[in-house]
Amino acid sequence: MSTTPSAQYRLTIRVKIADAQGMLGNLTAAIGEAGGMVGAIDLVEVDGGQSVRDIVVDASGREHWDRILAVIDALPGAQVIDTTDRTFLLHVGGKIEQHNKHPLKTRDDLSMTYTPGVARVCRAIADDADKAFQYTIKRNTVAVVSDGTAVLGLGDIGPRAAMPVMEGKCCLFKEFAGVDAFPICLQTTDTQEIVRAVELIAPAFGGINLEDISAPRCFDIEDQLKEQLDIPVFHDDQHGTAVVVMAALLNAVKLTNRRLEDLSVLIIGLGAAGIAVTKILLAAGVRDIIGADSRGVLHTQREDYLDCSMHELKRWFAQATNPHCRTGSPADVLDGEDLLIGLSGAQALPVEALSRMNRDGMVFAMANPNPEVPPEGAGRYVRIVATGRSDYPNQINNVLCFPGIFRGALDVRAPEITEEMKMAAARAIAEIVDESELREDYIIPSVFNRDVAPAVAAAVAEQARAAGTARAGAEVGFASSDTMTGAREV
User: Fold this and answer.
1) Is the pTM of this model over 0.85?
2) Of residues 400, 431, 430, 405, the one with CA closest to residue 418
3) What is the SS3 string spanning 48-106?
4) Were both Cys, which of 75, 319, 328, 453 would link to 404 (CB 3.0–4.6 Å)?
C-alpha cells in the first residue's frame, strides 16, 4: 500500500478542542507529524470555552487513520467526536442519476413527452428502425457491461460489488465526452448468457463498452458481439490500454531518438491488456517482442505450447513473438531491451535488473496500485518511467482514450471501432503534447486535459469517414449533443 497521503483515504474528523490560543495550530501540527495532510478546516460551533471543528485530512490508508486519530485523542484539550469517510460518502446512493431534458409542467408538455404525442414518434421508428438514432437516447448512449470477474486490483468480486466501478466509468464518459453511459452488471459468468443478454439490450444503446470481464472469456464475448451487433463494441481493458500505451510510446521514441521498427520490447503480463498491446505494437511496426506470463517467458518450445494446453491466444503470441525462443524469467531476458511494459502485478522483477536494458531505456509499469517495479527506483536505471498511477508523472490511463473513441464513433454512427480508428486515437492523444513540451516526465497528456477527448473523437470520426463506415447525417458532437437540429415532423 502507498505511504503517500491520497484523496481516496480522505477523512473528515470532527474534533472538540479547547478554545485557547494556539490550540488549533497544535492540533494541525500533531496531524502533520503523524503523516496526515490537512485540507479544509470548518468551524461547526463555539460553546463554553470549547469549539467543534471539522478537519479534512488525507491519509495513506485505514491504519494511518487510526494513528492520526490516536494522536488527536492524545493531545490535551482535544477529543475526536466523529469521523466521515469521504470516499464512502461520495458513493452514498450511487454516483449517477437520470435528468429530464425537457420540463414537464403543463398538460401540453405531457401530451408531447408521453401520451398521446409519443405514439406518432413510436410509429415513425416502427416504420424505420434507423430513426431510433434520431428520436431516442440511443444516439448518445453506451452500456458499460461487466460480470465483475476481473475488477482492477480486486479480481472476481461479482456484479454487485463491481457496480461502483461501472458507475465511475459512466461518470468519466459523461464528464469527458458528454456520453450518457449506464452500468449493466450481469449475474452470470457464462459466455453465451452474457452475449445473449447484451444482444437483447442492444436496441437501447449506441455502443457497448465491455469492462472487467476475465480472460480468456472476454475475447470470445467481444468477438461474438462484434459479429452480431451493428453498433460499436469495445473491451476497454484490452483496447483502451493498448491505445494509451501506443500514444505514450509514440512520444517516448521521439524523445529517445528511436524508431518503432527498431525497438526491442518485453511485455510482462499476457492477459487481455497484454495481448491487445502486443497486437497494436505489431500493427505499428514493432518487430522484436518477448512476452512473459506467470510461468515465465513465452515461446514455441515451452511445455504447455508443445502439449497444446496453452490457450489459443497465447499460442498466437508465442508464434508471433520471441523467434529465438529465449527462456527464463522476465529478469533473465531484459538484456538489450529498449522498453519494458508491465501489465501484471507488483514486484514482477527486481528493479536492479533494469540496469541491463539498453541506454535510455523506457519502462511502462502499469500494475495498480503497486507497479511491477518501484518508479523511484526505476528512474535510476532508465530514462523514461510511466505508470498507471495518478501520483506519478506519465500516467497511462484509459480515460484518455475511451470517452473520445466512443464520442467519435457515436458522432458518425460507425458500426464498429476498427484497428485504424484505434491508431488514429493513439496519434491524436500523442499529438496533444507539443514537441516543444516533450520531456522525460511529460510524454502523455494529463487525464484532465480537456483537449484530449475532442481530439480523439475528431480523429476517430475522420478515420470512419475515410473508411466509408460513417453514416450520413449522424453527427452529434461535443457542442450539440443535447440538441437535434433540422428535425422534421413525421
Assistant:
1) yes
2) 405
3) CCEEEEEEEEEECCHHHHHHHHHHHHHCCCEEEEEEEEHHHHHHCCCCCCCCCCCCCCC
4) 453
- Identify any residues that bridge with 193 across adjacent strands, giving them in sequence order: none
pLDDT digits (tens, 9 = 90+) for 314-360: 999 999 999 999 999 999 999 999 999 999 988 889 999 999 999 99
Neighbours of 225 (CB within 10 A): 22
Could you give the residue ranges of the DSSP H alpha helices within 384-451?
402-411, 419-432
**Up-side HSE of residue 223: CA atoms within 13 Å toward CB?**
9
Residue found under cell 452475449: 195
Strand 207-210 relative to strand 233-235: parallel, antiparallel, unpaired? Answer: parallel
Which has the closest alpha carbon to 163: 199, 190, 139, 187?
A: 187
**Would you give the DSSP letter of residue 148?**
S
Q: Check: CB of residue 424 under 8 Å from CB of residue 457.
A: no
With beta carbons less than 8 A apart as the criterion, state whether 53 and 17 touch. Answer: yes
Closest C-alpha to 24, from 58, 81, 72: 72
Residue 62: all three cell numbers together: 485505514
Residues pairing with 181 in the sheet: 142
- CA geometry: angle at 416 spanning 411 and 419, to 5°? 110
- Mention every residue, 6+ apart, whose C-beta is less than 8 A from residue 414: 232, 408, 421, 460, 461, 464, 469, 470, 471
Supply the angle between the helices 236-255 and 419-432 in degrees, to the nearest 10: 50
Q: Read off the pLDDT of residues 120-162 as tens digits, 9 standing for 90 and up.
A: 999 999 999 999 999 999 999 999 999 999 998 789 999 999 9
Residue 274: which of 228, 205, 320 has the closest Cα? 320
Catalytic residues: 114, 169
Q: How far apart are CA 413 and CA 475, in angstroms?
A: 7
Q: What residues are paired with 59 via a beta bridge?
A: 6
